[in-house]
Amino acid sequence: MLADDLQDDLSEVILRAKFDRYLSLEKRLQLTLLQLRNITKHYPPDVTAVSQVTLSINAGDVLCLLGPSGCGKTTLLRCIAGLEQPDAGSVWFEGRDVTNVPPHRRDFGMMFQDFALFPHKNVFDNVAFGLKMRGNGRSDRAARVEEVLQLVDLAALAGRTIDQLSGGEQQRVALARALAPGPRLLLLDEPLGSLDRALRERLMLELRQILQRVGVTAVYVTHDQTEAFAIGDQIAVMRAGRLEQVATPEKVYAEPATPFVAQFVGFENLIPGQQTEMAVGIQTPLGPMRLATAPDTAPGTAGQLLLKPDGARLVDEPAAENGVSGEVTAVSFRGRYYQLWLQTAASDHPLMFEFNRLPGCEYGDTVHLTLAPESLRWYPG
Ligand code: ADP
Ligand code: MG
Prior knowledge:
binds adenosine-5'-diphosphate; binds magnesium ion; CATH 2.40.50.140; Rossmann fold
């Protein structure tokens, strides 16, 4: 009897090790797990919630859908889950078209903003619920529930009812419940949305660690760029139902694809400009600006120029090129750096630049900066 149990345990361990190896191999090979092809979803009478979204997610990756409220994130997630039927396009999972597969047959785990836990049931029963629905036996359930509760560090609280837990603990119960059936894909819709700022900061890291430990592929919806950067391997920025950029957090930050993305990830210095005859030159209200590389659009093209805040140096005289002159409206200490706000001829609102050391100027001074070409990004059109 004991030997049988041991045998079972052993084969479970071996299976798990093989599965883990398989998963990491899958991740190393960058296999596509989920693919969205040209998804469009309308709501009557005339809302286009999602428009022609094409997207791939590699096995083991966490993809963050990032965008402002109302841009279609939840609708897209529901199309992936099968809770909404797209009007056009298809959903592919492991190379199979699952567009017409009902939600419960897709074996995806889901976690929503409101958690939807049973408040008067205890932690154990809440996590066991999904397994029960799937027809797992009692002892099988108990073992699996214990395993996931360990994973999210809640084993000690298994007997508590939900209304005896903090917001963060409830969030981990919801995560455990979603993970319990071992889903091949986890869908999370603003799972930290209802928590306060400080708690969110901490839980972001915890969530990231748990997802990495489990190695589960996930689609994570948020409107918070900090959260997306902290949690995503890839970020898909959405605006009005469309994708604006899909890339790593580093890439989105270093090279925002559009002015919208730039603003959404926190860059504010956008000024109007026009390409000059000079291959790498942009004429702006602040004077000529030289880019690091030549744009492939024609001279005369109008557009917007992004001035990143960390590429500025204070100089004594107005610079002939890449210069910004303006009046200081504020100097602000931000801990690791200082912010300098300048009212310039380029925009109604002040432009903001960052310095590692206290810039030697104060409110009302007129100052001159020069900008590194690498800190500029040109958006034609
Ligand atoms: P997000 O999750 O990014 O906030 P949603 O996907 O919830 O955005 O909504 C996208 C758009 O679709 C919004 O304009 C919203 O009002 C609309 N919408 C969402 N669900 C429905 C629905 N069931 N019926 C009609 N319009 C809807
Ligand atoms: Mg939503």
